[in-house]
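hiii, so i know i said id send this last week but things got crazy w the move. better late than never?? heres the sequnce for the chain we talked about at the cafe, plus the structure i predicted for it. fair warning i was half asleep when i ran it
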Amino acid sequence: MRKSLMRMTFRQLRVFRAVCESRSYSRAAEEMSLTQPAVSLQIRQLEELVGQPLFDYVAKKLYLTPAAEALLRASEDVFGRLEALDMQLSDLQGSLQGQLTLAVESSAKYLVPHLFAAFREQHPEVGLQLVVVNHGQAVRRLSASRDDLLIMSQPPGDQALDFFPFINNPIVAVAPPQHPLCSLEKLRLGDLTPFPLLIRETGSGTRRACEEYCHQKRAHFAQTIEVGSTESQVEATIAGLGVALLPRHSVRLELAQGLLRELPVEELPLQRSWCVVHARGKRLSPVAQAFRDFIRNERAQIAALEQRFSRAG
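okay and structure toks below
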């Protein structure tokens, strides 16, 4: 091993990882509570130890060099092993401690805090770092193994994965109470097509599932309106801009409060499942393994949570 690599410090690696994550010296400085010159100095020192440049600037954007990508992978291994060591030492002391890094698709963010709260009742010293992403981002994070676990629907079929479904994710049609479709007792999916359909951005798992299902059922909407988040989709539906196909648990409060109505469409709900996913062969930390085992084994708690979130308003 090069002797220069032995002179690297954890602080330098933490600064380096912050720059890689933010793709910005200034944002990394803010995150690390440092000045920008201090960040630049740490990176220059690392480059001297590595013997190669770590970043390139192209059109005012920061890009990782091959050396930086190799160093980033090595740093993830180092900090991952330290985190696992911390958890194992805590386990030897008789308590589970550490942090769970969890990425979830955006429409699962309503469910996951309640799921983690139930887990934390058993393990109160475990922390959570929750990242909310769309389906496309989830697939990319899964490829890069950036998180302990992911909760997503429709795991990609072109990767070697371990996953299991644990809770239903029914997708339903909703509209504001004053919408003309709300006066009908029975509908077909095609009856919705003359009205604008509010859809998520490209990359959304819910959007992709709904588009595939509507194509299968030959339900072609005359107009679609794209919005950038589930919250915007819900608000736009309440405002009367159109109808929407949404996970029932993401609009359960609006249904309960009468702000939205679930439309009685014969072909719905579209049944999907949330899955716990990680790369096959990935070494799970004690916290990640405990959380995965909790979801798999605590069927009574999961069933109660599913009933709570799947109930229409």
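btw Residues 66-92 form the longest helix (27 residues). thought thatd interest u
miss u guys!!
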